[in-house]
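Comment thread on ticket #2218

A.B. wrote:
> Attaching the input chain for the structure job we discussed in standup.
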Amino acid sequence: GWSWVAANELAHTGVTVSTINYPLVRTPMIAPTKIYDYTPAMSPETAVNWMLDIIITRNKRKVGPLGLGALTMYYLLPKTAETIVNASYQAVYEAPPEPRAKTARKQKRKAPI
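C.D. wrote:
> Ran it. Output below, let me know if you need it in another format.
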């Protein structure tokens, strides 16, 4: 992806580009999606440790076992991997965001006078 291109272009400068393929991280952002209550998720503290590890080691990629399996499948069977991931997105309903105009009006009403 983009980070591989950046790594190639910046290699002579001493800048190191790394990619972290996080699994699901248990943050307030995922709380509204109730199915995630039953899904294994990484703690925010562990996510920070992954980031610190990649900064210190300067490895090119940090990925867990499930992510490594997904990457391998994507390279070997890209269409199958895409179909499986798409099916998982379709299985988890997320309400669409409110239109921007409606959101902007709500913010104006809430603003102190």
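A.B. wrote:
> Thanks. Noting for the ticket: The first strand starts at residue 19 and ends at 21.
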